[in-house]
Amino acid sequence: MTARERWAASAVHRTITLGDAEISYLPDGRVELAPQGWFTLPDLVAFDSVPELLTPSGYLTGSIGSLLIRTPDWVVLIDAGYGPRKLSREQSHPSLGELTGGGLADHTEAFADVDAVLFTHLHDDHTGWAMAGWPGTSLTERPHLAGVLEAPSSFHGVSDGEQIFPGLTALASPGHTRGHTSYLIDRGGEQLLVFGDAMHSPIQVARPELNSCFEADPSSSVKSRAQTLEYLSQPGVVGAGVHFADVVFGTTADNAWHPLDG
Ligand SMILES: [Zn+2]
After folding, report:
1. pLDDT tens, 119-170?
2. Separation of 94 CA from ligand 1 center, angstroms?
3. Cα 221 to averaged position of ligand 1 atoms, centre (Å)
């Protein structure tokens, strides 16, 4: 795949290192996002300036998957994909095209020593395998954590600023959902911000006012996105966009997303 093709392809298995931690994106599937319906400020000009983001059918590509964070001290999985399901373009929401999951079944060997499963929020493209039953694993018996404002009673609800493990902190980033939560991993000063659905596409780095059509509180979403981008603008901070095409890991500079190779 060429560097240009990655912007419109769904993510493959990619791994980066952060200090003594290994961070892997484990792909589950993909969703097609119809740009003029997905974003609530339709702006053809914006997409004319980034044609590489669009597939030949005119969709943005949203990856669906999990992040596996493996340190010498603890191992967590963030988000749980969509699960072994498929919706056709006709069956999905009007602002979406095809929606598929199932790929995490190929990565069960990576789950053996997971200490906890963390969720950025509880939409079904993030909880799929947690609901469908993790194939061949005991992840259902591990603690499940999500933002305290939306966590069901069987979960541990995490609060803004709460340290979950040494070097792993929850940061409230409300808007997409009331309890939407980002996770900050710090390994000896090297940092990764897993920002979930605070941004769905790299175009929002340049156009942070673009909200998806699924924001529970759009003005909070814009504020949380601004805070996310401010955090990412600090030197040495890497971001992880769980829905970003095959450019999941990256840094920001000059109002643009700069993908890491991984
Ligand atoms: Zn999502």
Report:
1. 999 999 999 999 888 887 889 899 999 999 999 999 999 999 999 999 999 9
2. 16
3. 14
Determine the distance separating the centroid of ligand 1 and the alpha carbon of 79, expressed in angstroms.
Answer: 9
Give 72 Cα–ligand 1 centroid separation in angstroms: 29
Domain boundaries of the chain, sorted by first residue: 5-259
Residue 242 pLDDT: 97
123 CA → ligand 1 middle, Å: 6
pLDDT in tens, 11-64: 999 999 999 999 999 999 999 999 888 998 666 667 777 889 999 999 999 999
For 133-157, what is the HEC assignment?
CCCCCCHHHCCEEEECCCCCCCCEE
CATH topology of domain 5-259: Metallo-beta-lactamase; Chain A (3.60.15)
Please choose, from the candidates 131, 39, 44, the residue with its C-alpha nearest in 3D space to the C-alpha of residue 80: 131
Tell me, in angstroms, the distance from the centre of ligand 1 to residue 241's CA: 10
**Measuring CA to CA, which residue among 169, 168, 177 is closest to residue 198?**
177
